[in-house]
Amino acid sequence: MGAKEKKAMKKSLKKASAQQKAIVASREDKDAEFLPLEGGPGKKIVESAEPVNKSTVLYIGHIPHGFYEEQMEGFFKQFGTIKRLRIARNRKTGKSKHYGYLEFTNPEVAKVVADEMNNYLLFEHNLQIQLVPPEKVHPKLWKRVNRSIEPVNLVEVARRRHNKERTLQEHQKMVQAILKRDEKRRKRIKEAGIDYECPELVGKIQPKAKKIKFTDDQD
Predict the structure, then answer these.
(1) Are 33 and 26 in contact (CB under 8 A)?
(2) What is the DSSP string of 143-210?
(3) What values do phi and psi take at 98, rounded to 5?
(4) Nearest CA to 125 among 201, 193, 60?
(5) Cys-Cys crosslink for 55: which of 112, 131, 180, 196, Cβ 3.0 to 4.6 Å?
(6) How far is Cα 179 from Cα 205, in angstroms, rounded to an integer?
(7) 34 closest CA partner among 24, 20, 46
């Protein structure tokens, strides 16, 4: 064997040993990612833990007509204990604004409801349910939760407004408004080409207020 052949053999042996060392090192790195069964050095596996949910309040939107407090409580209490419930309503009419808030005692139950019941089809409406973080819950959110809103009787309000006693100036102002509307109506009828004579309004001319003078002879 010549000198050149010996040098080539040494180079090939060195190259093979280097490759073998690299393979062993890579295997050790891979094995280090797992904890050994019988003890020994090893790296701890870092698990990505999900953030713990602490929200118990749910926002519910797209609430259909007829699905009010009693119906909502009967529907959602199958998931868990309900602490508080509120549907936003108009203060004057008492009608629903089609959104509200629901609070469970258990945050896990609230998360399950938010995940499973979002976009749930109810009476041709898709319920929009979302968790409300504790830091975003308004301090006055549950202020009127136990108060019942009595709707304003608009018919009674209109009746009182119509039947109230008016002064002469108020009466004249009301008559002028009626005459103005009547004039516009007559103009529209004439522009439409309709031959019709509207009757005159009764009470168009109001008598002036009389001043009563008392003499010394009258007691």
Answers:
(1) no
(2) TTTTPPPPPP-HHHHHHHHHHS---HHHHHHHHHHHHHHHHHHHHHHHHTT----PPPPTT-SPPPPP
(3) 70, 30
(4) 60
(5) 131
(6) 11
(7) 46
Yes or no: say if 84 and 132 are a contact pair by the CB < 8 Å rule.
no
CB 127 within 8 A of CB 118: yes
Cα(150)–Cα(36) distance, integer angstroms: 71
For residue range 103-147, list pLDDT tens digits in order. 999 999 999 999 988 999 988 889 999 999 989 888 888 887 777
- Averaged pLDDT, 48-70: 83
With 0-12 / 13-18 / 19 or more C-beta atoms within 10 angstroms meaning exposed / middle / buried, residue 110 is buried
Q: Which amino acid is at 114?
A: A
The neighbouring-strand residues paired with 87 are: 100
Q: Distances in Å between the alpha carbon of 19 and those of 12, 178, 192?
A: 11, 105, 103
